[in-house]
Here is the input.
Amino acid sequence: MDQRLWIPRPSYLEALAPFSDGELIKVLLGQRRVGKSGLLHLVEADWRARHPERAVAFIDKEKDEWTSIQTGEDLLAAARALGGSPAGRSLILVDEVQEIEGFAAALRSLAAEGRWDLYVTGSNARLLSGELATLFAGRAITLLVHALSYEEFLSFNGRKDSDESLLLYLRYGGLPYLARLPDSDAARIGYLEAIVDTVVLRDVIERFGVRNAPFLRNLVRYCADSIGSLLSAKRIADYLKSQLQKVSPQIVIEYLSHLEAAFLIHRCPRYDIQGRKIFEIGEKIYFEDLGLRTALRGWRQTDLGKVVENAVYLKLIQDGWKPSVGVLGDREVDFVATRGASTIYVQSALSVAGDETREREFGNLLRIDDNHPKYVVSLDTLRADDKGIHHLSLREFLMASL
Here is the structure.
């Protein structure tokens, strides 16, 4: 294993640390190629340093040597062949565990034996839903793994924080492997386009049995064009009908849920700030990775406002916030984000240099009658704080500890 390939991601390792060498199954979920395998390698390296005398098995379903593990019974046999360690638990890591039929019962059995420290990854948000949740009840903890944050992007690529670095991040996103590619647009976009095909074709069309692949592709492109806009299944269906693709709103809802389950997109609900409740209809869509959005729709200066808003959303979820779109009468606040008992409000804008834009972005926040922190984030480099509202450049916001 080339240690240079596995750059530390401290926030995830710190989140896993309390459960190391314990009975709980550690489940790492996230979109393909966001770095889940790399985290397993980091866990393995740390384990070997602390427990050099104990046995380790790293089962990577993408490697030929592990193709024989097709079922839960195969997984049990591999674990038991590894044997126990007299000094304590052995380590078992399974990458893309959903590729193993009947994995849940096998993992539950291994966890019950108490002889293994178990880590698994998956690229399907439904991995622990329904019957699996019952099987795993009380035996697993879940950690969502995201594409690289801006700070991680700088670390992985050996770059300093600058306007140039920010634009590279906004354009090509935060998939870790990009750091190993040639410094060219063709190489990066070619890789990102290949990942889009993998995510769509493998994780959605095949796994969920999608019958209308052309419609799914058009739906993904529509989502990429519609970042920051309120969407509804009917609105999407009507648009596609105008493009001579007749589909029902129910199919739209179903396919959107598949894209969300594969972590390609996130759906952000609307929240009534005055009534303190989530609206049942209407939501916005954001991409897990900005580079995949570029691969779908290209890089256009006119889309920069959408991309900035998506970047703000990603910063919030990467830091553990739960964002919603705030509704205040006929006004809108881009994000109302909660984390535990804390709440913040965030407005995103390309610039607040003009009086009209400044009035809209700051004015919406000034109408909120509480003392929770309020931010306006834009590409402007000069701060313009106003009446307790903090104005941050996007670079400052992405590097901040909120």
About this structure: The longest helix spans residues 185-206. The chain has two domains: 3-144, 150-399.
